[in-house]
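User: Predict the complex.
Assistant: Input components as received:
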Amino acid sequence: MVSSRMRVYLMCWLFAVAALGIIVLQYVRIDNALGDTSLLTGYALYTTLVFLALFNLRKRLSMLPLGRASTWFALHIVIGLLSVVLFWLHTGTFWSLGLYEQVLMLLFYGACLTGITGYAIQRIIPARLIQTEYEVIFERIPGEIAEIRAEVESLILRCTDVSGADTLARHYTETADWYFRRPRFLLSHVFGTQAGEHWLHQNIGIVRRYLRDSELPYLDRLYELGQRKNRIDQHYALQGLMKIWLLAHLPLSTGLITLATWHLIIVHVYAL
Amino acid sequence: MIDFSKFRYFASAYERPSFKYRCGRMARWGKACARGPDISGSCGGVTECTPLFRDGRHYCRRPKRAGGDCFDGPLPDGACSQSHPPCAPRRTLRVWRGRAALAAIFIVISLIAISMSSRPDGVAGLAFVDPGPLSGHHANLSVEGSVACTVCHAAAGASADTWLASVVTHADMDGQCTDCHVFGGPSNIAHNRTLFGVTRPDLGETTCRSCHKEHKGAEADISKLTDAQCNTCHLTRFDSFSRNHADFVKPFPYRKRNNIIFDHASHIGKHFSDPKTAADAPANCNGCHLTEQAARYVPVVGYQEACSACHEDQVIGREMAVLRFPEFDQNYLEESEILDACGLTPQQAADLFERLRAFEEGDRPDPREPEEYFAYSLEQATVIGSLLTGIDIDDVAGQSEPLQRLFLAMTRSGQDPLVELAATRTTTAGARQLFAGLSPELARQTACQWARNVEYVRPDAERPRGWGADEFSLLYRAIGHADPVMKSWMDFAAAAPGRITGEEDHQRALAMRTLFADRKTGPGACAKCHSLEDVSTSDGVEQLAFKWSYYRDEQRSQKFFNHQPHLGLSGPEIACESCHRLNADADYAGSFEDFDPTLFVSNFGSVERATCVDCHNETGVRQDCTLCHRYHEDPKFNKPVTRYMVKPKGEGDDGS
């Protein structure tokens, strides 16, 4: 059974392959007829770049009936890859010699690499988020951390009141407070290691032998809250990664479109 | 696991990540206030609500997710009682993305603007226009010491408004190319040629940039042409040379004869093995062909090295009789005219002396009776003299007076009357060249004798080379090979029939050309080796010419074969025979009887494609079209190309 998502991608790929086939056939025909193929490939490439840039516009104009965002996304992916083929067909080389063409290539390769990286992130990270067995909205993560921190501080105060001992309180202020202040071990979460879990195990568990029995339930609860916070940290790191790659992709893409437009002007002024 | 209770309407705020600002408390990992930042970026959470005034009373409006109505309620003045210090809202990630995108655009535009600003050297300022280094000699083009963009791009040196207008106007790049490059035909027609004078509009026009793509670096091959591109236009298509390229049209490549008549078969098969000439014969092809200089052609050594040992005697042995003292029917000249020009002969002086002495002694001899005229010479006028004077060599009565008058004129002015006559058949300069080196005294002395109706007595026993005379003829003997006077007579004879009109004169010109073109008896033996060829122009005037140079390069410019790499394959001594196989049965000499150079029978059998395919195949060396075929017809440079060449440092514009 083919899912609707797969069907969309299948259609997009069919469209892209057909378009590329037509362009390549036309390219061969023009080339063999001693024509100028760079016009065909250049304008086709510029059109794909503009179309790829329209995806961002589509997201901003969500009120208009411009098709489903998922379809646009699929087209963005497929046509983005098509543009790489068109780019090499157009330039005929992996690295140009002129300065501005080198900058243009650098921007194109940068936009492509960040785009492919972003797509990989979008495909890999959600699965890893599910593995945390916890869900949280990215924008609410600071609030969630604040709630946990408030609960932890309340817990420590109650422990001090009930047990009359300040061992756990001193341990919190000297060690555990650092952990609950903000998301920690972000790189570890991105790369999938368990640094946060280890830290909790070592720094929360180590104090158990110094506590009275009446303090132990509070320690267990502190550990539970620490584990919850660890999962939230994981969400923050991974969801943040899903958002932050655009910070590289978008400037590279806009720079590329700008310089490609300049290239178009230059070609028309000097050669056409 | 998610706690869905947090999303109940009274417990959950609506997240708006597309807003420009987010709560400053949240940015410091605290709990965001319920109201959030204002759209202007200022803190909206100084108070927890804006109380509602209704029916003369203020009501708390704190949302349920922030705890609902507060215990203190609004202050008497209607202000919220729950106030906090303001936070510093932060920009969201979306804003930073937008700013980064705008910054990228700004940076790119700035780079373009900076690079486009004019620089004194005119070079660095082109960084964002120049798409890369030029190839080969194009990189050396210069205009007034700067990079010569304007040589190819008219817009490069244009004003700002013209530059902008160029975006939508057509740039005539081909026109810029043909400013320096010219071909043997239209530049925008395939192969620069028309097929039998007819263009093929169905093929469309070609442009220079179709194949020549510049700015690919100094080492780039900007003239590469693929086999597929050839196959697109050519009706006879093939996969590869070795597989199904058409066989060479026989006799390949001997479709047009050489300028020099050299019968390889008779020389190799007969003369080189003759004991009389074998000593001077070359050992192999290298004896005459300079294989070390082989390229498209394998040049030959000159006449002196290759031919003179056997043929020099023929060159200097065959004299040219320009003028002859023929048989006359009567004397048309007054004796006094001859005496006035030539004076007395010794015999006449002695006779006069005897008569004077007898007169002094009182002897009065009877007046002399006019002597009856007897023709001293029974020779026939020359063909050359016939053309120059317009006489018929068989008409003794008709030729007598004109020739006698010519002789009388020569007695007075030497060779000048002959030059004047020749000038009526060719140019004055050409006429002078025909009689260059002819001594006026020799002309006068021979003419005096012939005018007196007696033979000329040559002072030397053996007649030297150059101009001379015997009893009845004014002669020219070639000084050696490539004698300029003899060449000018050959050229004159070849061109005369096409230049001279009038039935009788034309026939005389044809007779003269036949005389010079005779390979066995022709003067100077020039025609023995130099072919006489039809060089008629398109206006229909028949024109023949002797071919003096060895090479023939016309209409072959688009095919190329480099002999040099092939000679080394099997050694220079036998490499030639690998392809050029002698055909002893071919009527090589007979093919020069006609003046059409294309009606040619070579000494050699046709070169076969199979011979080439032995090496040029899929598994061997190159076999693409451009290995042997050149695209352009007769590519050349325009003279003005030199104005763009870089001048050495220190050299002024005035060439100093």
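Chain A has ten helices and no strands.
Let me know if you want any component modeled separately.
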